[in-house]
Amino acid sequence: MYKIAVIGAYDSIYGFAALGLDTFPVSDVQEGEDTLKTLASGEYAVIYITEALAAELAHEISKYREQVLPAIIQIPGVSGNTGAGVAGVKKSVEQAVGSDIIFSNN
Amino acid sequence: MASTQVNPTRMELSRQKKKLVTATKGHKLLKDKRDELMRQFLDLVRENMALRERVEAGIREANKNFVVAKAGMSEETLHTAMMAPKQGVYLETGKKNIMSVDIPVFEYKTRTADENDIYSYGFAFTSSDLDDAVKSLADILPDMLKLAETEKACQLMSAEIEKTRRRVNALEHVIIPRAQANIKYITMKLDENERSTQIRLMKVKDMMLEEAHHYKERQAAAVVE
């Protein structure tokens, strides 16, 4: 039985608490990195992370990219969408095909 | 030309031939695997993109609602309302195998029987905007989970495709040409050896005949006469 976690700035994630996801508000990058490490090695199968925080922890996140669990998924924060999530999908295409042939024109 | 030194022997030749057959067969299989993986991946990644766009739009809406809700009530009330969530979401994970890539499958369960039991606060001190905000977020939760599943699958498959592609290329451009070159080199070398043996035998035969019959001396004598 796994749980779902949400990491990010408090303002971006507090709503998810009502749905029953475990929220972990973090205020700085170091705290975010520590939290992410603990969560990833624990009982969480899906970790949603705000794009703003993910941008700081890109190195850490890429370690989990090829593991089956946990799935670390970027979500836009309250300050808006940075496009990092879409860029992640494009990166997958690029890795598989060699160049982005599907989404390159939009 | 063979870049590594191989022994020009018959045994090595049959070894190289066997290697070539295996490599060709493996190359064909891996190429098929790559094509099929790619086909599945392209479907999946399109779905992934659609889901992501939907989820991002949904979260943007929800965030807007939360900002409105926050504006309408004091921060303390909001914190208190969100402090003790009633609902809990748990995941059952399974595995699905697509072309030898294990991808996770999530099935989610809620702690309370009613999925819509999401309001963890009394309605007395909170604004209705908060209810709307929580509802809008709850509506996209299934999509978010689907997104997690699809995105993870895409990441795993793209890694597998990359690996397979590298293998196909290595076989096609390195292993197979090298085996072919080695086979050619050994065959040529063996043929060359055979020819040289033949010539040596002919030469030896000439010399032995000369020894027995003294052709040259006789010829010389005939010229003198």
TrEMBL record, chain A:
InterPro entries: ATPase_V1-cplx_f_g_su, ATPase_V1_fsu_sf. Transmembrane segments: none annotated. One of its GO terms (molecular function) is proton-transporting ATPase activity, rotational mechanism. The keyword Transcription regulation does not apply. Pfam families: ATP-synt_F (PF01990). The keyword Phosphoprotein does not apply. Keywords: Ion transport, Transport. Belongs to the V-ATPase F subunit family. This is V/A-type H+-transporting ATPase subunit F. It comes from Frisingicoccus caecimuris. The lineage of its organism: Bacteria, Bacillati, Bacillota, Clostridia, Lachnospirales.
Automatic annotation (TrEMBL), chain B:
One of its GO terms (molecular function) is proton-transporting ATP synthase activity, rotational mechanism. GO terms for biological process: proton motive force-driven plasma membrane ATP synthesis. The keyword Aminoacyl-tRNA synthetase does not apply. It holds the Pfam family ATP-synt_D. The keyword Transport applies. Gene3D superfamilies: 1.10.287.3240. Residues 147-174 form a coiled coil. Keywords: ATP synthesis, Coiled coil, Hydrogen ion transport, Ion transport, Transport. Belongs to the V-ATPase D subunit family. Produces ATP from ADP in the presence of a proton gradient across the membrane. This is V-type ATP synthase subunit D. The lineage of its organism: Bacteria, Bacillati, Bacillota, Clostridia, Lachnospirales. The gene is atpD.
